[in-house]
Amino acid sequence: MIIDVNLYQKIREMYTVHQMSQRAIARELKISRNTVRKYCKGDNVPWERKEYSREPDVLTPDVMDFIRQCIKEDEAEGIKKQRHTARRIYHRLVEEKGFKGGESTVRLAVQQLKDEMPKAFIPLQFDPGEAAQVDWGEATVYLDNKKVSINLFCMRLCYSCDIFVMAFYRQNEESFLEGNVKAFEHFGGVPHKLIFDNARVAVKEGFGTHAKPQARYQALSAHYAFKMEFCNPSKGNEKGLVENLVGWVRRNILVPVPRVKDIDELNQILMTNCLKYRSHQIRGHEQTVGQMYEIDKSLLYSLPKYVFDSSKSISVSVDEYSTVRFDRNNYSVPVKYVGKNVSIKAYGNILTIFYRGQEIAKHNRSYGSNKTTYKLEHYIDLLERKPRAVFNAKPVKDHVKQELLEWGQTLPGGAKDMVKVLRLCVDYGSDKLLEIKKQIPAGVTPTVDLIRSYLIKHSIPEKSTQKIIDTVNVEEVDLSIYDRQYGVAQ
């Protein structure tokens, strides 16, 4: 019987103060003698409950050993998505051990065994220059007013906790390799080993100590002379420093959500904050991150003279539309290269195109399928030869504001004048020409020469800062030397 505190108080008072017998207390309070016997001496209190702990008869030592073995096998394999569930253990017990109990009994036993095995981690300490941890994270930002998800490549030195963070569009191999190279340059040296997880960009097969690295990651390791070390699956604690960094960046740098023009501007913000972090002092450390970094840096491996090329490179032919195709997307080049073979170097965020070793075009890299990225300046020469196509040309519509196109249709020379205006757009930008449009009086018919005059006027400073000298000193010349030279009579 469970009693309340008031009844418990009466039992204790009657037994202790009034020294009544258990039988008399039971009769007076109209409760059982067993209840009085349980509470009268204060051996038990009504507000504490003892958990029910009777172990079902079906959970024999053999059954419990089988459940423990299943859990240990999961830990040893380290495969997160292929682990024993309580239901799977129950079915195995029925099939392999002839288990007669219920699934709920097994489920409770599994939970209790897991609770008995708490996760405990050993504190780690690294020497200067010894190691760095690498990880990826995701975040949301606004690029050119579009809400997009970007990927953060993070590296952190284990001794000083100095940080490097760079944003990429994707977590692909070329982004991963570029992130490593840029991090080494930021730190001014190479850690002796890099600790990373088993992501496909770095690991071809296996995991942990059995991992086989991808060929290009192995080449990066060979070139920069660092040792590769891979974590066991689901063991984020093995690179806890950098995992904490991912969260720190999201909370401290990317709140409020950044609104930037492009990913380059975002990376400038990230780099500014990485450098600023060196003035931070971590709790428990006697020096700032920057002071400890200087010690770290002195023991890093030196950077090799040759910078590892992290790009994915291919050779392609320029098609009749003056574009090249890479990874399911097209990119423009100047029209004079139509039909020629060019080389593409694709990095994480940019794509550069070369002809005979000379750079001829650079674009922000596109992801997705069947997108074409044009640059207006690549088609100006062709439009000057074929001006009638100017108002329907895709490179023009992609890069020139509709307001400027409508204004161009009012020019006396029509399409030819519009092409000349586009040439000015390449040199000065569309926004500058729209400013000129607003300054020309409404009753004045715009011409290309008039637009040029406004541009020239705005390119000359209003006031010259150079001091003008308004006096000239002229020295007197003795002309008699000419008479003597040519024998003229005096």
UniProtKB/TrEMBL annotation:
Annotated Integrase catalytic domain residues: 124-312
GO BP terms in the entry: DNA integration
Gene3D superfamilies, alphabetized: Homeodomain-like
NCBIfam families linked to this entry: transpos_IS21
PANTHER family for the chain: INTEGRASE PROTEIN, TRANSPOSASE RV3428C-RELATED
Protein name: Transposase
